[in-house]
Design brief:
The complex is a heterodimer of chains A (about 350) and B (about 250).
Chain A (H helix, E strand, L loop, with lengths): L11 H8 L4 H27 L9 H6 L7 H12 L8 H18 L7 H18 L15 H27 L4 H15 L3 H15 L8 H27 L2 H9 L4 H16 L1 H14 L9 E2 H10 L7 H32 L4
Helix pairs in contact in A: 4-7, 4-14, 5-6, 5-7, 7-8, 7-10, 7-13, 7-14, 8-10, 9-10, 10-12, 10-13, 11-12, 13-15, 14-15
Chain B lengths: L13 E10 L2 E11 L4 E5 L6 H8 L7 E6 L2 E2 L4 H10 E4 L11 H11 L5 H14 L15 H13 L5 E5 L7 H16 L3 E5 L3 H7 L2 E6 L2 E6 L1 H6 L4 H11 L2
Parallel strand pairs in B: 3-8, 3-9, 6-7, 7-8
Antiparallel strand pairs in B: 1-2, 1-4, 4-5, 9-10
Classes of the chains: A mainly alpha (about 350), B alpha/beta (about 250).
Chain lengths: ~350, ~250
């Protein structure tokens, strides 16, 4: 029998002494940092909360406290424009419904017990419903061309479907890059290197300006779809290298054991290799997903109206000119919320998957 | 082309004829001939680098040979993928490093190939899996993951996993070399039992006690050649070549 582990850090005072005031130098550092934090934080709290204007019909009240208090009234006033862009005002319930639907899909997809082939069907159905809601033109809904889609809704659409299509494509590319067949390998390597070596902005411009030149007469793909395709192709090239990293982490013995049983290439890949490779690749995959989510803001250069662009346009109005700090803090909070959720989820997933394998 | 096996005639289970293999410029196997009868147990030994592992891995095409013929259960090994998969279905393999699938439970490790290769219904595969786990005396671990087991337990699971495909031949590539000494016996016991049940076995090992008990023939390799092959009695009592004598003195010595 081993001795009982001594109780440690039981009282808060003991904890403080152990961690913050361990010695004279450590106490000095603690106090110094506390003082600095207070010096920096206090004015920010004053500005952001105490003196802030939360709602006002116009910017007059805000101008009076400018520099002293934040003008959140801008967000209150313009939130619908920021969320939905130039989508017709009285139809805003439609993109709102789509955002909620996407959030539900995210949550459902995050739960491991729903990880089965039917989930792909659910997403497909979700995509159709979103399409119907956004375009309308049926069930008594007014038709809204996708030139007018915008704001947070557009950002979520681009990111979600970008990742949903880029991820499977990247797996095929990564497998192709390790293929025994030279033609497949060369094509995949060529694709990955070519796309990865080009900035996303230039791909977007190519998709929006050059692609139509190459299409036959009379065929046109709309601008949003072209941007979406460009983003999928771009993300797939990046993700492919992440997936390849995961594939390389699977020991040779795993391939041999699967081969020795007579599993075919695809069964071996689906049942043995990918489950292990993707598990290893979770941190860099999520890293790439997060980067990609924020990269969607680059569609501004081909005139699409994402979250960040909406904010910029809202600021362009003479009344709200000059409240950029508030607007961009808000944008940061929105982006941060989604990215932090992804990060937390991936950490949970890693923990959960690791639990299986612990001794 | 693949041909149906008719093994009742006493045709050899495995026929290796004039096989040569190179890794780059280095020749690992030189004109190897070996014929294994149905139910025969052959222990292959020899110093490291002698080509013994490579020889065994050729039989289920984990390695390819450049010259010579290999026929397993009436099917000739070549470029034909179908033939390779057909042979792999009949040949079970146990590796030095176990190579269990870490993301699957013990039972799932066993049922995977029967379900996906043999197309066995899941229920039947699980019943078979449990039965095999009983046989290697590890049924109580069925729901655990490989990392939760000791090395000896993992290797017994690996043997059961290979048996789940109901193979006609079992290949063992140094099955006890990665084990702590106290775990070697539990694995060898399972292998001895398997031999008693009449399985055709090719075993690369340095466990000479096992060779004495079980082997019909001991095959000594050195420098990519089969230097000596004979019954354990002949081989251990009166090795014919100096190389075999030296090898035996080194591993049996002290």
């Amino acid at each position: 029998m081993s001795a009982a582990r001594p109780a440690f850090g039981a009282s808060p005072i003991a904890w403080l002494r152990e961690n913050l005031f361990y010695s004279v130098p450590s106490s000095i550092v603690t106090l110094l940092l506390a003082w600095l934090a207070w010096k920096g934080l206090a004015p920010f709290i004053d500005w952001a909360f105490v003196n802030a204007i939360w709602s006002a019909p116009d910017s007059k009240a805000c101008r009076d406290v400018k520099g002293v208090g934040a003008c959140w009234a801008l967000i209150t006033e313009k939130h619908r424009f920021i969320l939905f862009g130039t989508y017709p005002f009285e139809q805003h319930w439609r993109p709102l419904l789509c955002i909620l639907l996407l959030l539900v899909l995210y949550v459902v997809s995050a739960m491991r017990r729903f990880w089965r082939p039917a989930l792909a069907g659910v997403w497909l159905a979700g995509l159709v419903v979103i399409g119907v809601l956004m375009w309308g033109g049926m069930f008594g809904m007014v038709y809204v061309e996708n030139e007018r889609w915008g704001g947070l809704m557009l950002t979520l659409l681009l990111a979600t479907f970008g990742i949903a299509f880029a991820f499977p494509l990247s797996i095929l590319l990564a497998l192709g890059r390790r293929s025994d067949m030279p033609a497949v390998r060369i094509m995949c390597v060529g694709y990955i290197e070519l796309i990865r070596g080009v900035p996303l902005i230039s791909l977007l411009i190519m998709a929006s300006v050059m692609l139509p030149l190459f299409l036959p007469e009379g065929v046109s793909i709309d601008k949003l779809l072209r941007a979406q395709i460009a983003m999928i192709l771009f993300a797939a090239a990046y993700l492919a290298e992440v997936v390849r990293g995961g594939l390389q982490a699977v020991p040779q013995g795993q391939y041999e054991a699967a081969d020795a049983m007579g599993l075919s290439y695809w069964r071996k890949t689906m049942l043995i290799v990918l489950p292990q490779a993707l598990r290893v690749a979770i941190p860099p995959l999520v890293n790439t997903f997060i980067g990609f989510f924020k990269d969607t803001s680059l569609v501004v250069i081909i005139g699409l109206f994402d979250l960040l662009t909406s904010i910029k346009v809202a600021l362009g109005e003479p009344a709200w000119n000059g409240f950029g700090v508030e607007a961009y803090i808000f944008a940061s909070i929105v982006y941060f919320t989604f990215c932090y959720a992804m990060s937390q989820y991936s950490q949970n997933l890693e923990r959960e998957l690791a639990r299986d394998r612990r001794h | 082309m693949a041909q149906a096996a008719t093994n009742s005639s006493g045709a050899p289970m495995i026929e290796i004829k004039g096989v040569n293999k190179w890794f780059g410029d280095f020749q690992v196997l030189k004109n190897v001939d070996l014929s294994v009868a149905l139910g025969e147990k052959i222990v292959i030994c020899g110093p490291s680098g002698s080509g013994k592992s490579t020889l065994v891995r050729l039989i289920n095409h984990l390695e390819t040979h450049q010259k010579g013929r290999i026929v397993v259960d009436g099917i000739e090994l070549g470029e034909d993928l179908k033939a390779i998969e057909a042979i792999r279905r009949e040949v079970g393999m146990v590796f030095q490093q176990f190579n269990l699938f870490p993301h699957l439970t013990v039972l799932e490790n066993l049922t995977l190939a029967p379900i996906w290769v043999r197309r066995m219904p899941k229920k039947d595969a699980e019943a078979l899996g449990m039965q095999l786990l009983e046989r290697v005396r590890i049924a109580e671990q069925a729901a655990k993951y490989p990392a939760q087991l000791s090395g000896g337990q993992q290797q017994r699971v690996a043997i059961a996993r290979a048996l789940a495909m109901k193979p006609k031949v079992m290949l063992f590539d140094e099955p006890t070399s990665a084990l702590d000494p106290e775990m070697i016996k539990e694995v060898l016991d399972v292998m001895v039992e398997l031999a008693r049940e009449g399985m055709t076995m090719l075993v690369v090992t340095h466990e000479m006690g096992f060779a004495r008990t079980v082997a019909d023939r001991v095959c000594f390799m050195d420098g990519g050649e089969i230097v000596e092959i004979g019954t354990p009695k002949e081989f251990f009592a009166a090795p014919k070549t100096d190389r075999a004598k030296l090898f035996l003195s080194q591993i049996l010595g002290h």
